[in-house]
Amino acid sequence: MLLRSFGAMTIDPSADRPVYKQLADLIRARIQSGEYRPGQRLPAENDFVAEYGISRDSVRRAMAVLRGEGLIVTELRGSRVREVGEAVTLSISPGTQ
Questions:
Q1: What's the DSSP call for residue 35?
Q2: In the predicted structure, residue 77 carries a pLDDT above the cut 60
Q3: Is the pLDDT of residue 3 over 50?
Q4: 73: CB partners within 8 A, 6+ apart
Q5: Are 64 and 57 in contact (CB under 8 A)?
Q6: What span, in angstroms and rounded, lies between the C-alpha atoms of 59 and 46?
Q7: pTM of this structure
Q8: What percent of the residues of the chain are helix, what percent strand, and what percent coil, each to the nearest 5?
Q9: 9-11 and 4-6 strand pairing
Q10: Which one, of 14, 11, 13, lies nearest residue 27 by Cα?
Q11: pLDDT tens-digit readout, 12-69
Q12: Residues 13, 17, 21, 24: is their CA dihedral positive or negative?
């Protein structure tokens, strides 16, 4: 069993939780701890692939999860932690599809 770690957190390919969700958890923890600050660029996909020995698809899926949560934004030159003022709140009225 190969485990890749960040502090006490690891990526375990044999775990029940998908690898991309484990990576999203690691990056989210780094954002919440302040290791990755608002506006800071995240490492490139290839850096995560090399560091954790996971597929590029897993990295892309993890980034999609974090984008969906509003924690990061992705542009032509990579992803970065969303600035506090960049968050957008949407209201959906009952019955609206």
A1: S
A2: yes
A3: no
A4: 67, 79, 80, 82, 86
A5: no
A6: 9
A7: 0.79
A8: 40, 15, 45
A9: antiparallel
A10: 11
A11: 999 999 999 999 999 999 999 999 999 999 999 999 999 999 999 999 999 999 999 9
A12: negative
DSSP states along 1-15: ---EEETTEEE-TTS
Measured from the Cβ of residue 23, the count of other Cβ atoms closer than 10 Å reads 25
Residues 6+ apart with CB under 8 A from 20: 57, 58, 59, 61, 62, 65
Q: How far apart are CA 49 and CA 55, in angstroms?
A: 6
Is pLDDT above 60 for 75? yes
- Report whether 55 contacts 4 (CB < 8 A): no
Closest CA to 53 of 85, 13, 15, 25: 13
